[in-house]
Amino acid sequence: EVIIMESVITNEKDERFIELTRELDNEYFFKLGDVVERYLDYNALTDPHIVILALNWGKPIACASFRLIDKDTIEIRRVYVKKRYRRKGIAYKLIKQLEKLAMEENFKYSVIETGKSNEAAINLYRKLDYEIVDNFGIFEGDDLCICMKKQFKSLIF
After folding, report:
1. Which of 21, 139, 144, 156 is the most interior residue, by most CB within 10 Å?
2. What is the value of pTM for the model shown?
């Protein structure tokens, strides 16, 4: 299948994003069981998010978002690619686009969290220059999660 990918910037209220995050939550539940319930409130889309959707022939196939942590830091969240489109660099591209938007708004850092057992995600974030840091926020003391951080390089050379 040929992927004709376009990306669209939107927000957390976009129905296409809500549907993709529902698929993401279902996948986590299938993999991890009841343990995901402890993250339900955290993953609720109650605060503003900048969202990027990847569309293939107009249909949503992937998403990623960020929310503000503080004046210098964003948190990358809800990164999801439908199964049949994985391992094609889509998540990488979406995160790079989010980072570019954040840098344009003068943010200095990006943080991200994933499950310790999610090697594919950890490898992706390492490839994007994220480094493992002490768990932050609700993830402090959580031995199922890993937190990572990146300092943005200046756009000026």
Report:
1. 21
2. 0.85
